[in-house]
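Q: What does the assembled structure look like for these inputs?
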Amino acid sequence: MAVATGAACAVIAIVHTLRDENRWPFTANNMFNRSPGAQFPQLRMQLHDGEQWTELGNVYGLLPFEFFRTVEILAAVYLDSPTGAVSEDRRAEFTRRLLEGMERGWHAFDEIEPPPPAPRGRRWEGLRLLLVTIDLERFDPIVDGPLDDISVIHEGWIE
Amino acid sequence: MIRQRVREIFAGQMDVDVRLPFVRVSVAAACLITVVNMPRARALDAVSDTLLQPPLRPVGTLRLSTVKYTALRLTTITLLTLWGLGVRHPAIGYGAATGFAALNGYIAHILPQIWNFNTHLNALLIACAAVDSSGRPSTTFPGRRSHARRGAVLAVMQFATALIYSQAGLSKLLHGGRSWLGDGEVVRVSLAVLGTPAGKRLFHRPTLTKLLGRLVLIGEICFLPALVALWPFRWLLAIGAAGFHLLTAVYLRINFWHLWALYPALFLPLLKKRVKQWDLHPRPHQTNRTQR
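A:
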């Protein structure tokens, strides 16, 4: 019985791999299976501490989810999706709650990154999301550049 | 030859009495750590208010209230703790498995196209709950204590973890072939966007990243057949797999802890040798003991 059930689940899991789709609880285990290409877009962010904007940083610590889910959640909210775009009001509300959540904070765990620490005595008051393009032939991750086609897709504030 | 190996794997694991309690504790601990570190209800609410509403999801998409989510988490933590500590009643094991599956499924449901691929924990938790995985003899649930059943369940759990690698390898080969077998582009992309300081330095060594890409693909695809072929040395494969996860942690900060943390219990030789002789025809005193 145990072996038959295990074998059936294995077959279903392999079918998910062949079809390259994830449907909980079955996973294709398709992490990192394909390249986005030699030039690919990436979400970046800047935070405002009440005085100035930070340098462009990665978005992984904006939500208490695994970094890859954080990217997908932000893309779903701030980029237009096939099912329709989230309204600007809803995006502004999402940003406000995101900044409040960062102020409460959370701890790093596994693939969940902590929020970037605000300067002493200040808090993050604004968030700017940007879309950039990375060209693998020219990009140097040590200096984090050059970044091409930089465009602001959203700017929101805590109040 | 193959029949003998299959029999060896599914009916010949003589250390099951010692190994299964160790597996239960490891699986319970991994699930407990996962649940404790799930997002707090308030953070989940902030995201659900947008992600589980139109236009991203249809009206009426399942949503747990703050109270229900918190209650489910606390109940699951309690059941997992009891079960991990050795309370052997089937209701505790199945309850823990159900609670964990519900929570894990709900977290995945927030963004169903991608989630932390730890659903093997669900499978292992259910498998462990399906037998008496405690280290002590029991007269309460003799059927769950069947040596054959427990041995088969242990083998299924070992193969469930190995399948993950072969799935990952197959997926890379079928859907990303050139970027893994050819120029290793996907390795460089990963290092570019996720690399640790060591990973960022590795990015500048394309020959090495190309070689690593090929080795990863071959190693993953071959893992399941290698486990069968090298069954007596499965502990060596487990150490190799853990080494692979260590490397990805060093270069990418991704360690897949919820998989390799189970390897000592599932694969490594046990320090405490309390292995009992066992065959398919139990001796009369063993039969009497389980039937009493």
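Residues 274-292 of chain B have pLDDT under 50 and may be disordered.
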